[in-house]
Write a structure and sequence with these properties.
Among the domains are: 117 residues, Tetratricopeptide repeat domain (Serine Threonine Protein Phosphatase 5, Tetratricopeptide repeat, Alpha Horseshoe); 77 residues, Pantoate--beta-alanine Ligase, Chain: A,domain 2, CATH 3.30.1300. Helices cover 59% and strands 2% of the residues. It contains 17 helices and 3 strands.
């Protein structure tokens, strides 16, 4: 996950340090897996979207992460590892439908058909309208039709093979854009998070007022809360919503506080954990957090940028380049990613590509700190300085 105002945002801290370093340089005079028993390639269309994950309980993203890890292992025919990841996820959420379905599918792939059928029958009783479960059970219970004409033989016929169910969710990029959150969603989430902080302040002020005077428990007046000193200023929704009270703070633009808080916490929890570890220079732990975020939210440009910047700090330039390019695929206007990409290109010897990128930022962002920093770095590179002269180590 990010503070309410830009000046407090730890998510921009690395970017701010990077830009200030570049500007300082300028000032100094120049910074389905289970489609059949033999294959694991056919995948069913996803039955739930990432948005469904976001609105679920807080432990869902972690359980879904182990689902993705289990699915990846199963695609590689590593059934033991798949079942291990599934077991971890089920300890976090014992009723996670997709983990239970994937476990049954892996059992079928292992030849444990009876167990798989029993599990799918149990799930069918619990979720009678689930198309994936119904189809998987039908496939398992229906023998494969013979591909060739039968041959007369005195030997008993071999046991019929059964279709294995396909995986319940496809982790590849879906054909329909509605199946994957767009990059703009995360910009909206930043606004929603800022609104969440405003509502949290309202909640604290209103509860303090009720504790001081029980007769005012049901009364809600923002101006009165400001005049009493319980709010330092009148809260303002970043997207123009009007605040109210209905058993708790509400916003006409974003909804009630409990729902907004749950969504914001779900989206930003692991992201913020990664930022905290990165700020404290625990880059290995930060990388683990950002990789989990990128697996869950693959269209989030900022998550890919933070992952790339962390890899850069760890010295893995090749992986950092891939992550930064992925960030720019999600959001081509991410200036922090462009500057870091120019840094990396210059570092690995692609001087002309770095200069082209810097010149584009300098022209497109003329007069801004990004434009000035890009211009000063480009000037330093053209002067013949090497990488470590332009970007001195920390």
């Amino acid at each position: 996950m990010m503070p309410a105002a830009r000046r407090d945002s730890p998510g921009r801290q690395p970017a701010r340090l990077f830009v200030l370093g570049l500007a300082g340089l300028w000032m100094m005079a120049l910074a389905g897996p289970l489609d059949a028993q033999e294959t694991f390639s056919s995948i069913a269309a996803p039955q739930t979207s990432v948005r469904d994950i976001l609105t679920g309980p807080q432990n869902r993203p972690r359980a879904d992460t182990y689902y993705l890890l289990g699915l990846a292992a199963a695609r590689k025919n590593n059934h033991a590892e798949a079942l291990r990841q599934i077991a971890i996820g089920l300890r976090l959420d014992p009723n996670h439908l997709r983990l239970l379905s994937l476990r049954a599918a892996v059992w079928a792939r292992q030849g444990r058909t009876a167990e798989a059928i029993a599990e799918f029958r149990r799930l069918a009783r619990l979720y009678p309208g689930d198309e994936y479960i119904t189809q998987s059970l039908r496939d398992l219970e229906r023998p494969l039709k013979p591909r060739f004409a039968p041959v007369t033989s005195s030997l008993p016929p071999p046991p019929a093979k059964r279709d294995s169910p396909v995986a319940p969710v496809d982790t590849a990029r879906p054909a329909s854009p509605t199946r994957l959150l767009e990059a703009s969603y995360f910009e909206r989430m930043k606004q929603k998070q800022r609104c969440c902080y405003q509502m949290a302040a309202i909640k604290r002020a209103q509860e303090a007022q009720a504790a001081a005077d029980a007769s005012k428990k049901a009364a809600f007046d923002l101006q009165a809360l400001v005049e009493s000193g319980r709010l330092s200023a009148r809260p303002v929704c970043p997207e123009g919503g009007e605040y109210g009270w209905a058993g708790g703070p509400t916003c006409s633009k974003h909804g009630d506080f409990a729902t907004v808080e749950a969504e914001v916490t779900t989206v930003f929890a692991d992201f913020n954990r990664g930022l905290q570890n990165k700020i404290s220079r625990n880059y290995t732990a930060a990388l683990q957090a950002f990789e989990q975020v990128c697996a869950l939210y693959p269209q989030w440009s900022e998550a890919h940028f933070q992952r790339g910047e962390t890899l850069f700090r760890l010295g893995d330039d090749r992986a950092a380049l891939e992550a930064i390019r992925r960030s720019l695929q999600c959001d081509p206007g991410n200036l922090d990613a462009k500057l870091l990409l120019a840094n990396l290109l210059f570092k690995v010897g692609h001087k002309e590509a770095a200069l082209e990128l810097l010149d584009g930022v300098a022209t497109g962002q003329a007069g801004t700190v990004y434009g000035l920093a890009a211009r000063s770095v480009a000037k330093a590179i053209r002067s013949g300085r090497n990488y470590y002269q332009v970007f001195p180590p920390d």
